[in-house]
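ugh ok so i messed up the first submission bc i forgot one of the chains. this is the corrected input, ALL of the components this time, i swear. 998 residues overall. if the numbers dont match what u have on ur side tell me asap before i send this to the collaborators (the ones from the other lab, u know who)
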Amino acid sequence: MLAHRAIKQLRASSLLVHRGFAVLTADTINPNIVKAEYAVRGALVLRSNDYTDRLARGDKSLPFDKVIPCNIGNPLVLKQQPIEFHRQVLALVNVPGLVDESEAQKIFPPDAIARAKFYINNIVGGTGAYGHSKGSAVVREEVARFMERRDSHSADLEDIYLTDGASPAVQNSLLTLIRDEYDAILAPIPQYPLYSAAIALNGGSLVGYYLSEENAWDLDVKELTRAVTQARDAGKNVRAMAVINPGNPTGQCLSLENMKMIIKFCKEENILILADEVYQENVYAEGKKFLSFKKVLRDMGKAYKDVELISFHSTSKGFTGECGRRGGYMELVNIDDSVKDQIYKLMSVNLCSNIDGQLMVGMMTNPPQRGDASYERYAEQRDSILGSLKRRAVKLVKAFNELEGVTCNETEGAMYTFPNITLPAKAIEAAKDAGMAPDAFYCTQMLDDTGIVVVPGSGFGQKEGTWHFRSTILPPEEAVDEVIEKTSKFHAKFMDKYR
Amino acid sequence: MLAHRAIKQLRASSLLVHRGFAVLTADTINPNIVKAEYAVRGALVLRSNDYTDRLARGDKSLPFDKVIPCNIGNPLVLKQQPIEFHRQVLALVNVPGLVDESEAQKIFPPDAIARAKFYINNIVGGTGAYGHSKGSAVVREEVARFMERRDSHSADLEDIYLTDGASPAVQNSLLTLIRDEYDAILAPIPQYPLYSAAIALNGGSLVGYYLSEENAWDLDVKELTRAVTQARDAGKNVRAMAVINPGNPTGQCLSLENMKMIIKFCKEENILILADEVYQENVYAEGKKFLSFKKVLRDMGKAYKDVELISFHSTSKGFTGECGRRGGYMELVNIDDSVKDQIYKLMSVNLCSNIDGQLMVGMMTNPPQRGDASYERYAEQRDSILGSLKRRAVKLVKAFNELEGVTCNETEGAMYTFPNITLPAKAIEAAKDAGMAPDAFYCTQMLDDTGIVVVPGSGFGQKEGTWHFRSTILPPEEAVDEVIEKTSKFHAKFMDKYR
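and heres the new structure output, hopefully the right one now
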């Protein structure tokens, strides 16, 4: 410790001597930021932004006339329409007095007006005032009732914390869990890189557990045991396990047996479960059904009442697709009261999450009901979006499986396909020369050739020697054929070149 | 280092043995969270929430009939009305097709419709889609033009990052600056506790510099030198200096000379400036004028072009008062490009700030202009709010100065008064018995007696042996007299009891 301190003092005094140097350089900022990687918005996306700008300026030199962003689950940029009821309520809440104007009756349905009045009457100061740091009580109540209907178990609004999307909820959970580099978090490989990035930012250790691509991205207890044993042998304290269900980027929907196994394992090994359930409404596979970890945990009875669980949900996914709203929540299950107080304090430093996003959470969890004026339109929008997503998933997976050297598991749920590409040795060599991971090289070539933006598997982690890319299933149905055609042509050309 | 590692391994293995214990307890969560304090939403506020609930349930046993929240700058809960134009644009943007409906022409003025069309046409996917991680380019352009008009210096939208309010911007800046406990940040005492809390959360060290209450909360270079020297002698690396201008909780508005002194000092000592300028529109004192650090820095010429500056602004304050919207931005001035890339990556992990909040930033910085349909109403709202805030500030400061043993500096700007209270020895003794800081004891008694919520000075830091409280100037004008009357009566009673 003394040596450590002496080194730091040396650093401090050496900086004193070097006046005139910048305080912040890539070498002197918090190294955890430098370590963090987030490929979903990484180099490829920046490159595609440049193409978008060039096309907008009328540049005709590119071999495509538009950029198709399949890098991120962002439905509304790809022509998905927002749920009308939700937007009407937001508008009515935001313009003081509008709910009482006669013109408004002509534009807005009565149930939207009624809901707006409910929020106006129950949220002091409205959408423009700071609210409770855990979020508006009336919205948390809506969330609790939603979870009760979903799980057939009680839910308490005091355990629900509204957040600016699921991302800050995950980040705050990891901030709470991680004390130093010896604190480890289990995360799936492949995984949505929010987890790897946030673990790096908080200075913790990620311990990967591999999903089995051969078995439809299944997860088995042997692999979990291997991961935990190896981490502990390396002196790590395994504190939590992140599970993404349905999977991102892998799309699998966990079975009841799988979930029970995970819960038993976590109880046995004293591990907290972080359940990322943002795709709970996106399940397409026949015979598959989303079950929440809370439900399964509670169904397992009193013996499991000490298993700690934090679950996450968001307005960005499902058929709501309101990403830019930054609405989300977490539920703390079996978490110590003193810890909940500390998490409240942590959230209070940022005062509250945005109120419009909170209201979107309220409407997502408490939508129009049969008999309400907006119900039919709501149900029509919901069914049309989910039906279309399913058709697109099936179509894309089928098309990818027809490409040379490509295999692709079914998209049981979520919003992505994650095809495995067998790259020729010459392509791997060329990637090496270009200083890129082979799948990043492939994806860059695809972007340059077609304007389609996908994310290389290396951004999510993958079994060594395998290569993938993640593509969303979000291009509108009429564009899916175009994506398939362009991808197939590009793939054939690429394989011909490097075979 | 080895000893450190051995201890950690021991901790890991001891946890292994103690299966069945909770993963998260107040003793085992990240201790930085436990250390962080945020009095603005602390114990007193929780106590006041309880009173609010009791009053709502019809409890008649309390000696007051309402809770008056003066603990936080949250204007819209205290009857301030939102700027109408801004809300109209939000509504028009959020309901697809509304801008083209004939009924809408009857409800909304043409400039609001035009602005909504501009945002709809320029923001791909609208308010419900993830946008650029730095924020929408059209809004950043509006901010850049605003800063150019304000400062008479160029501004580049690429240096502007939109955020969910100023708080996460400050937190991300501190996350970037702080590597470990040897990295220190200068912060004023007294100060808005976001700084102390965020420094603690990031595991850094706060080095306080005292503002001089005797000289209207002035700041002098001797005190800065003392603080930095003392910190360096203790082995700290002083990386940045937070300045809040106008001050929170102190309300002073920095003079040009003061700002130049700070900039010279920071250049000389190689310190980055964090300029919290969220109260830039709230200046009330005759002859005082807000100047941005960017302007003063640029006015000082090329010799200062390497002084690094990050400045913050928000939609929550000024006369906009849209706290719940979580709109804000930071500008990075003279910051290394590689660091800007890292900050972009850091922000991309959270995808983007909420788009409604971004639009509020756009409207705040680019409001209706003379000649626009909404201009008169806008100007009327603006002048009425600012005029009223000024009257309330003057009235409260005057009233506090008339209380026995109380002195209170002028509220030159911002939204607070910060009276100094000389507490009798018996009161200090009673506080000790109650296990509270003397000013927390005073504020708790005030809440219990009057329903008025203020924050003890100990939550902001203060010179040892002095006691204060912070009260906002936000109760509506008709309620200010009530606040003054209730406070005066309580104070007299308190002094009589403990004198």
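quick check: Chain B touches chain A through 121 residues (CB under 8 Å). that seems consistent at least. Residues 13-17 of chain B have pLDDT under 50 and may be disordered.
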